[in-house]
UniProtKB/TrEMBL annotation:
This is Peptidyl-prolyl cis-trans isomerase. InterPro entries: PPIase_dom_sf (IPR046357), PPIase_FKBP_dom (IPR001179). The lineage of its organism: Bacteria, Bacillati, Actinomycetota, Actinomycetes, Micrococcales. One of its GO terms (molecular function) is peptidyl-prolyl cis-trans isomerase activity. Residues 1-12 have a biased composition (Basic and acidic residues). Residues 1-21 are annotated as: Disordered. Belongs to the FKBP-type PPIase family. It comes from the Bacteria. It comes from Oerskovia enterophila. It catalyses: [protein]-peptidylproline (omega=180) = [protein]-peptidylproline (omega=0).
Amino acid sequence: MSENTERTRPEVDAPEGPAPTELEVVDLIVGDGAEAQPGSTVNVHYLGVEYDSGEEFDSSWSRGQSINFPLRSLIAGWQQGIPGMKVGGRRKLVCPPELAYGPAGGGHRLSGKTLVFVIDLLGVS
């Protein structure tokens, strides 16, 4: 397997300043494998934290196994922020509420929140 199996759980520094109103995509490590396309199914390790509190709300690392998802079934921020990423890469996405779980009162516990994800792309199909 590639270097991903040895990669460690990411740390997310507490964001500073106001939350962004548009999707922020930052490559922390640029991969050199296959490139994710909008219709891809992706195998990822990820960590999610709330922008305002810095509190972790979800992590595949905590469960000890990566997750396989069709991109089209994920939140809009992932659908827009993962295509173009290459296997072996690590990318940070900062998703405003409209690209995450919608406005406050939307029925999801994370509705109305800006979310930060650090995603390791392990595979695409």
